[in-house]
Recover the amino acids of this structure.
């Protein structure tokens, strides 16, 4: 995290130094305005809208201070001329200030770039914490001016003496004035990075100290390039060091900018008229509020839609606000989907004692619902889909041996099709990361570069979402593969009148390919004994405990194996 805070402080310091140069530099104002416009425009491709506004506010404050000083100097000189006797022999001061054509060109460029940026921000519907940004910018500008006076002003010690207590007071005031939260995050340097700075960041005084150090560093580099009459060896060494430091700092910014530029676009599947997912979502809105009879009728309508091609459609190309609203509404969508799965499960439970084959039909509906959520969606879709699929496994296990051979074959075919078409977890995680990049924009890219690089998987293994996905997938895949093998064994016994001696006997008549244990990538443990048999997975630890089984709450465990009946044990 230290690299993240150093980069944030460094960038904020660079913005303030550039704004200071823009206002007080000696180059023609047109060139300073051009550099400022180019710097503002460079922030647009990386979607760094909050830093862009921060830079714009600091530049305006610096320019306002510089122009106020200039107007004050003009007024003072004018008063002095009025009070001076015309016959005085003293020299006359030239207080003439003329607005030239190049100044007009510079203002036109700034207004043009500003209008373009404002239009982009409005189109992107960016929410900004204006109070926090303005407060942060004002504090950073004041610190930069005090430190600049320390380098260039006549009263250096006084400026430094004012800078230190001002920084301490600003760090304390920011904790009182800028409250933490999504609208008013608590950060003296980068008020817009609330999630990481508030939750994990160092004290604000440390961030402020980093910022001050980088400002001093930039001013020292600037002093090294000032023309000096003395061409001594010490001056030449200072010039070389300043050049090397400026090159290193600039190279770091260029590298960071290049790293933040790539933003891969989603490989969205083409829109297809036969995708029934949108119709399913419309049908189940408010499903949890329905009474039993309407809920039963609605669930049967949705079951027919789920038999068609059905996969999640994420609004990748929507506007920023549309994507935010979609993400907020996902909570209600998931609740309705769970209610629908519960309705199917209740219907299966009611049919199980007398009509096991009809109950299996409802289980297949649950499997279809889980399958639909497991393709082309976000991480939440995948998790909800596999949990719904787990409900189907839990429901079918107690009466799986009561099914007719025909229904067992149908269920076996559906399970095989779902297992073969199961989407890898890596694809779902990549899609979730892309969604986060699109919505959290530069903050997530910066966090990804500094804290959790994409190629460093060790930092992501402990992520709660990744762990939850891994655990849910382990149980869903393990149960699905065991259930496929178990149904094939039942079909073998029904037709052959005996149990298979080994699992290889099931292929190719009953299973085209026998599914391996999810954890070992080998065949699951199968031990026939008379009319009974054991079929189980050794679990994530990969150790065969000889058929010692625990309940579902112990999965996964290094002390027990896992079979289908474990689902029904507490």
């Amino acid at each position: 995290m230290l690299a993240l805070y150093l980069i944030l402080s460094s960038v904020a310091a660079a913005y303030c130094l550039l704004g200071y140069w823009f206002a007080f530099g000696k180059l023609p104002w047109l060139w300073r305005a051009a550099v400022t416009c180019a710097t503002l425009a460079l922030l647009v491709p990386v979607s760094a809208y909050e830093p862009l506004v921060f830079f714009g506010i600091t530049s305006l404050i610096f320019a306002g201070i510089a122009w106020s000083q200039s107007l004050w100097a003009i007024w003072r000189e004018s008063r002095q001329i009025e009070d001076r006797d015309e016959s005085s022999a003293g020299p006359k001061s030239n207080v003439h200030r003329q607005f030239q054509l190049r100044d007009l060109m510079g203002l036109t460029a700034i207004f043009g770039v500003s209008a373009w940026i404002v239009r982009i921000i409005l189109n992107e519907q960016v929410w900004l914490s204006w109070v926090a940004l303005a407060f942060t910018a004002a504090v950073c500008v004041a610190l930069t001016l005090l430190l600049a006076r320390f380098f260039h002003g006549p009263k250096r010690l006084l400026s430094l003496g004012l800078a230190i207590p001002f920084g301490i007071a600003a760090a304390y005031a920011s904790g009182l004035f800028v409250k933490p939260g999504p609208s008013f995050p608590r950060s003296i340097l980068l008020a817009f990075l609330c999630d990481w700075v508030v939750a994990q960041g160092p004290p604000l005084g440390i961030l402020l100290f980093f910022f001050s150090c980088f400002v001093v560093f930039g001013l020292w580099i600037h002093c090294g390039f000032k023309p000096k009459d003395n061409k001594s060896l010490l001056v030449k060494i200072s010039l070389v060091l300043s050049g090397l430091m400026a090159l290193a700092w600039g190279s770091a910014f260029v590298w960071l900018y290049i790293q933040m530029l790539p933003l891969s676009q989603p490989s969205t599947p083409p829109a297809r008229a036969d995708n029934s997912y949108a119709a399913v979502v419309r049908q189940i809105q408010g499903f949890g509020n329905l009474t039993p009879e309407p809920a039963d009728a609605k669930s049967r309508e949705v079951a027919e839609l789920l038999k068609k091609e059905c996969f999640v459609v994420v609004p990748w190309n929507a506007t920023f606000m549309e994507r935010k609203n979609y993400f907020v509404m996902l909570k209600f969508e998931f609740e309705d989907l769970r209610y629908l799965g519960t309705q199917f499960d209740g219907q299966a439970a009611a049919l199980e004692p007398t009509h096991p084959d009809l109950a299996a039909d409802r289980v297949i509906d649950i499997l279809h619902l889980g399958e639909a959520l497991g393709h082309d969606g976000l991480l939440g879709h995948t998790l909800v889909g596999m949990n719904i699929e787990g409900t189907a496994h839990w429901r079918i296990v107690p009466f799986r041996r009561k099914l007719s051979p025909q229904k067992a074959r149908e269920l076996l075919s559906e399970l095989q099709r779902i297992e073969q078409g199961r989407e890898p977890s890596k694809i779902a995680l990549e899609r979730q990361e892309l969604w986060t990049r699109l919505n959290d924009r530069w903050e997530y890219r910066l966090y990804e570069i500094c804290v959790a690089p994409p190629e460093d998987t060790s930092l992501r293994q402990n992520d709660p979402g990744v762990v939850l996905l891994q655990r849910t997938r382990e149980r869903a895949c393990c149960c699905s593969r065991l259930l496929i093998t178990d149904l094939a064994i039942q079909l073998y016994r029904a037709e052959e009148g005996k149990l298979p001696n080994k699992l290889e006997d099931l292929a190719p008549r009953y299973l085209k390919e026998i599914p391996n244990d999810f954890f070992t990538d080998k065949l699951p443990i199968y031990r026939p004994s008379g009319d009974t048999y054991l079929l189980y997975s050794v679990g994530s630890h990969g150790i065969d405990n000889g058929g010692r089984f625990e309940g579902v709450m112990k999965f996964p465990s290094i002390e027990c194996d896992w079979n289908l009946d474990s689902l029904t044990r507490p």
